Amino acid sequence: MRKISACTALLLLCAAWPTSAQVADTIRANGSGSAVSMLKPMAEAYQRSHRHVEIAIGRPLGSSGAIKALLAGALDLAVSSKPLTAEEAAKGARLYAYGKTPLAIVVGREVPATDLSSRQLEDILAGRMTRWASGSPLRLVLRPEGDIDTRILRDFSPAMDHAVSLAQARPGMLLAVTDPEATALVARTQGGVGVAGLASVLGDGHPLKVLTFNGLGPTPALLASGAYPLAKDIHLVITDKATPATRAFIDYLYSKPGRALARKAGVWITASAAPPGMAP
């Protein structure tokens, strides 16, 4: 049997022992449903080219829940559809603009409609329109009162604001807390209709039909032009304790490859560049 030299043995031992490059840097991320749907393919692409990095993304906690977890040290990165509160900022949250995704009106594929006017949406919310043109029943899926999607509808017009109030006050309504819950509930509800960020609609893969709104499709291009009026913000939120691995991933999100994946996910990127201090 050939003897192994001391030098060779040492090399073999070093090869078997995990190095710092082989130990994963874990980035814990979460946030609003639409933002998480956008983030998942970006995280997968980043991990393919950064084998030592693991990006852990669970079920969406929502913007407020993710920011709370971030401030508690349970997350490294939150992706939010709402601005920070004064209290969140005072506790150390730092918000950076990234982009917007259209708030889409979605229905089950069996629904005959292809477009809703603002007046029809008001009638649906107010309970005046309860059937589709074919005569089949219509079931509205609501979002919670404090949800950003509800706020976007309220801000559209005074008439829409009043219609939302009527919907929120009506008993027995179907309710979905996050975008993924909304897309799933609309898809499995006969005659269902609701709203969700386009990034979730594209990423969740449920059998849905996206309606035009006043004849306009919810596309990033129409959103960027100012033609499509319903939009959800996507912000990145960290604290000053963000790790170098987290900052490097954020820098990637603003890079050319990251921006291309975001556009494919249904996001209009509004930020021109990564915030200073992100790149390692």
Automatic annotation (TrEMBL):
Pfam hit, one: PBP_like_2
Alphabetized Gene3D superfamilies for the sequence: Periplasmic binding protein-like II (3.40.190.10)
Signal peptide extent: 1-23
Highest rank taxon of the organism: Bacteria
Domain PBP, chain residue ranges per copy: 19-256
SUPFAM superfamilies: Periplasmic binding protein-like II
InterPro entries the record matches: PBP_domain, Phosphate_ABC_transporter
Keywords noted in UniProt: Signal
PANTHER family in the cross-refs: PERIPLASMIC PHOSPHATE BINDING COMPONENT OF PHOSPHATE ABC TRANSPORTER (PTHR30570), PHOSPHATE-BINDING PROTEIN PSTS (PTHR30570:SF1)
Protein name (database record): Substrate-binding domain-containing protein
Species of origin: Candidatus Geothrix odensensis
Higher taxonomy: Bacteria, Pseudomonadati, Acidobacteriota, Holophagae, Holophagales
